[in-house]
Amino acid sequence: MYLWIKALHVIADFAWMAGMLYLPRLFVYHAETPVGSPQSETFKVMERRLLKAIINPAMVVAWLTGLWLAYESEAYKQGWFHAKFALVLLLSAVHGILVGKVRAFAEDRNVKSSKYYRILNEIPTVLLIGIVIMVIVRPF
């Protein structure tokens, strides 16, 4: 059972990260479109669907399977896991920020520039690099 849960965890991680990398990119383009334009309305639909159909469910599955794996393998007793867990908490916080941005765009309340979203788009990448290093290299 362990390997099946691990496989599901990796699949959920891929889906979560794909969405976390794509959503801020949509924000870059959305921030550059006029409020109320057909393009803006299309971006609203794309952002909402990406969040509700992919990112949120993938995050839930990643968390549930990850916690189960940490318990089952006793990884929670190791230093590398503590670092990984901290990075996943930060990734979850970024997820929360993105949820707020989807709401802001949906309500035509975005005040951030496309440059802001370009920078925001890099944060999940940096966190992913750290998470992968913790899991694969296990430096401590």
What do you see in this structure?
The chain has 140 residues and is mainly α. The chain has one domain (2-136). The protein is 83% helix and 0% strand. The chain contains five helices and no strands. Helix 1 packs antiparallel against helix 4. The mean pLDDT is 98.
Helix and strand layout, with pairings?
Elements: H1 2-31, H2 38-73, H3 79-106, H4 114-120, H5 122-136
Helix pairs in contact: 1-2, 1-3, 1-4, 2-3, 3-5
Order of helices and strands: HHHHH
Structural class: mainly alpha
| Rg over C-alpha atoms, rounded to the nearest angstrom | 17 Å
pLDDT under 50 segments (min length 5)?
none
* Percent of residues in beta strands: under 5%
Helical element count? 5
Kindly state the number of beta strands.
0
Mean model confidence by pLDDT: 98
**Major sheet size, sense and barrel closure:** none
Provide the domain count.
1
Helix content: over 70%
Distance between the termini: 27 Å
The geometry reads as elongated
